[in-house]
Amino acid sequence: MICTFIGHRDTPDAVRGILFETVKKLITERNVNKFYVGNNGSFDRLVLSVLKELSKEFPQIEYYVVYAYLPENREENYLHTIYPEGIETVPKRFAIDFRNKWVLNHGNILVTYVKNTVSNSAKFAEYAKKKGKEVINILR
């Protein structure tokens, strides 16, 4: 089982607790063992911090940062990264959308933080639902 993540780039740090519990339940109760996350915005940073922490308790899990484009900050050094095939032909302004669709097409479950229903995050949550993916919105 593969879990993916999409959320607002301005997600508050207060979401980390519910995100942690959600991901931990997916590991322990649903046998999710692979995770794909982007590298844009605060939601992705929160997800990465949760995955790093949980990987110490659950060394069997794998997580990958999926790039929309190569980072300008060369100091970003993730252990596992994916650069989706074909993305090199996509104009930079469409690269995040291309990456998000790639991630959703390769996952089974989407964990999302969608507060604004007219946002790109909401658009991709709807896309995932239409593709038959399970969508878990951690917004409470």
Please describe the structure with a list of short key phrases separated by commas or semicolons.
Rossmann fold, 6-stranded parallel sheet, 4 helices, 6 strands, 19% strand, globular
Architecture blueprint of SSEs:
Layout: E1 2-7, H1 16-30, E2 34-37, H2 41-57, E3 62-66, E4 81-82, H3 92-106, E5 109-113, H4 120-130, E6 134-137
Parallel strand pairs: 1-2, 1-5, 2-3, 3-4, 5-6
CATH top-level class: Alpha Beta
Mean of all residue-level pLDDT scores: 90
* CATH third-level topology: Rossmann fold
Tally of alpha and pi helices? 4
As a whole number of angstroms, the C-alpha radius of gyration is 14 Å
> Uncertain runs with pLDDT below 50, 5 residues or more?
none
Shape: globular
Oligomer category:
single chain
**What is the CA–CA distance across the termini?**
25 Å
Structural class: alpha/beta
Helix and strand element order: EHEHEEHEHE
Q: What is the total tally of β strands?
A: 6
The percent of residues in helical segments reads: 40-55%
How does the major sheet shape up?
A: 6 strands, parallel
- Strand ordering within the main sheet: 4-3-2-1-5-6
Give the CATH architecture.
3-Layer(aba) Sandwich
Strand content bin: 15-25%
Total domain units? 1
Tell me about this structure.
The structure is a single chain. The protein has 140 residues and is of the alpha/beta class. The protein has a single domain, classed as Rossmann fold (3-Layer(aba) Sandwich). It has four helices and six strands. It has helices at 16-30, 41-57, 92-106, 120-130; strands at residues 2-7, 34-37, 62-66, 81-82, 109-113, 134-137. Helix 1 crosses helix 2.
